[in-house]
């Protein structure tokens, strides 16, 4: 008998794309990670604790930027100094089709879920969607959207790093939890879901 070959584990860095975003999330570029954390924390304090308004904040930042660039350009022309270095302010042609493709995929996925619930009367998908929406509503009642985004950023900068360091014991715990959840779901499926009468295909055709 041949020896069983264990599947090769993919690293967290590769799972995150092995790019600059993965480096920031795993603190391989610690200066960028600190910058993101400091920026997000500052914005959260301004909007949540200091009561600053998002529209007034954006307007003031743009106002200062326009004033600085205007006087910089005027002084540069008078003092024979170089003009402010502005990047090429154009949207590349490839970004719009990529964004449209991503929106197209997610829209079709949402429509397929709606088709399973309304047309196919899939009770399992219906319960998953209802439970997910209820959890989202419950979390939204505990904190506002800005705080939720801030918590998401904190988790993004901490969970991948912790998982990268303790991947093996976490995987073992997750596998055990997955088996327990599957066993409980099978019991619930046999005791409740399979006993709910659903219309058969013949009844659908006659209707």
Give an account of the 3D structure.
With 207 residues, the protein is an all-alpha fold. Helix content is 73%, strand content 0%. The chain has 9 helices and no strands. Helix 3 runs antiparallel to helix 7. The chain is elongated and about 85 Å long. The chain starts with 11 loop residues before the first helix and ends with a helix. 1% of the residues are buried. Mean pLDDT is 82; it is low at 1-6. One of its GO terms (cellular component) is endoplasmic reticulum membrane. Its main location: endoplasmic reticulum. This is Reticulon-like protein. It is a multi-pass membrane protein. It holds the Pfam family Reticulon.
Q: What low-confidence regions span 5 or more consecutive residues with pLDDT below 50? A: 1-6
Between the first and last Cα atoms, what is the distance in angstroms? Answer: 57 Å
Number of strand segments = 0
Number of helices: 9
**Average predicted confidence as pLDDT:** 82
Radius of gyration: 26 Å
Give a short account of the largest sheet.
Answer: none
Fraction of residues in helix: over 70%
Order of helices and strands: HHHHHHHHH
The share of residues in extended strands comes to under 5%
Pfam families: Reticulon
Main location: endoplasmic reticulum
Keywords: Endoplasmic reticulum, Membrane, Transmembrane, Transmembrane helix
Subcellular location: Endoplasmic reticulum membrane
């Amino acid at each position: 008998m041949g020896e069983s070959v264990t599947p090769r584990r993919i690293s967290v860095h590769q799972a995150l794309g092995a790019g600059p975003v993965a480096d920031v999330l795993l603190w391989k570029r610690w200066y960028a990670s600190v910058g993101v954390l400091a920026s997000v924390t500052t914005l959260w304090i301004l909007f949540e604790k200091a009561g600053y308004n998002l529209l007034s904040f954006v307007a003031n930042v743009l106002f200062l930027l326009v004033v600085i660039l205007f006087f910089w350009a005027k002084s540069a022309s008078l003092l024979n100094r170089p003009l402010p270095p502005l990047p090429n302010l154009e949207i590349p042609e490839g970004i719009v089709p990529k964004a449209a493709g991503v929106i197209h995929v997610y829209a079709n996925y949402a429509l397929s879920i709606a088709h399973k619930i309304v047309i196919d009367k899939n009770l399992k998908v219906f319960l998953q969607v209802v439970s997910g929406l209820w959890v989202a509503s419950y979390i939204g009642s505990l904190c506002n959207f800005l705080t939720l985004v801030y918590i998401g950023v904190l988790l993004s900068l901490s969970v991948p790093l912790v998982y990268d360091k303790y991947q093996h014991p976490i995987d073992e715990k997750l596998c055990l939890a997955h088996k327990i959840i599957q066993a409980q779901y099978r019991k619930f499926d046999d005791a409740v879901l399979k006993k709910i009468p659903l219309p058969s295909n013949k009844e659908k055709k006659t209707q």
